[in-house]
Amino acid sequence: MSEYLSDDDLIVPFIRLGRFYQGQALYSLAQPWYDRSKEIAERHLDKKNPDIATVYNYLAALYRAEGKYEAAEPLFLQAIEINKVALSENHPEHANHLNELAIVYELQGKYEAAEPLFLQAIEIDKIALPENHQQLATHLNNLANVYHAEGKVERFLSRKVSM
């Protein structure tokens, strides 16, 4: 019944059903909902619509959860490119997509690729969000994990995290 959904609500049911199954690690049941949301969004929305970036982000996160990093990376990159055009450069959603891609690199041990993305997400958060926002704390924690994995905790501790 997707024909009865407005563009504003077009992806919501599919994403929520996908998240429901993914949250239970039922990845094979989540996949069709994310695929359907991608198909419908690409057919009905402008290619620069941030909802398409959201769909790509959720599908990529599913692939990442399954360990399919090669499938996740291009979708995260596409989401980032869409958001560069569709949203302001300091939009919190842009920071979120950068963080998601950085996690893919971190999980693969590509710390040199992950670090600048986490740093960029943190800088966006510091501009766009209140200083005590959970998303900023999450991105700082993720950066600390990279430094810890590299054995460079002092590098993180020596950084000034000023708001």
Features:
globular, 73% helix, mainly alpha, 163 residues, 8 helices, Serine Threonine Protein Phosphatase 5, Tetratricopeptide repeat
Structure description:
This protein has helices at 12-22, 27-44, 50-65, 69-86, 92-107, 111-128, 134-149, 153-158. With 163 residues, it is mainly α. α1 (12-22) runs antiparallel to α2, α5 packs antiparallel against α6 (111-128) and α6 packs antiparallel against α7 (134-149). The longest helix has 18 residues, at 27-44. The mean pLDDT is 89.
| Rough outline | globular
Task: Please estimate the helix content.
Answer: over 70%
As residue ranges, the low-confidence spans are none
- Tell me, rounded to a whole number, the average pLDDT: 89
Question: What's the CATH class label of the largest domain?
Answer: Mainly Alpha
In what range is the share of β-strand residues? under 5%
Radius of gyration: 17 Å
Largest sheet: none
H and E order: HHHHHHHH
Distance between the termini: 47 Å
Helix count, DSSP H or I runs of 4 or more residues: 8
How would you name the CATH homologous superfamily of the largest domain?
A: Tetratricopeptide repeat domain
Q: What is the structural class?
A: mainly alpha
- What is the CATH topology assignment of the largest domain? Serine Threonine Protein Phosphatase 5, Tetratricopeptide repeat
How many individual domains? Answer: 2
CATH architecture label of the largest domain: Alpha Horseshoe
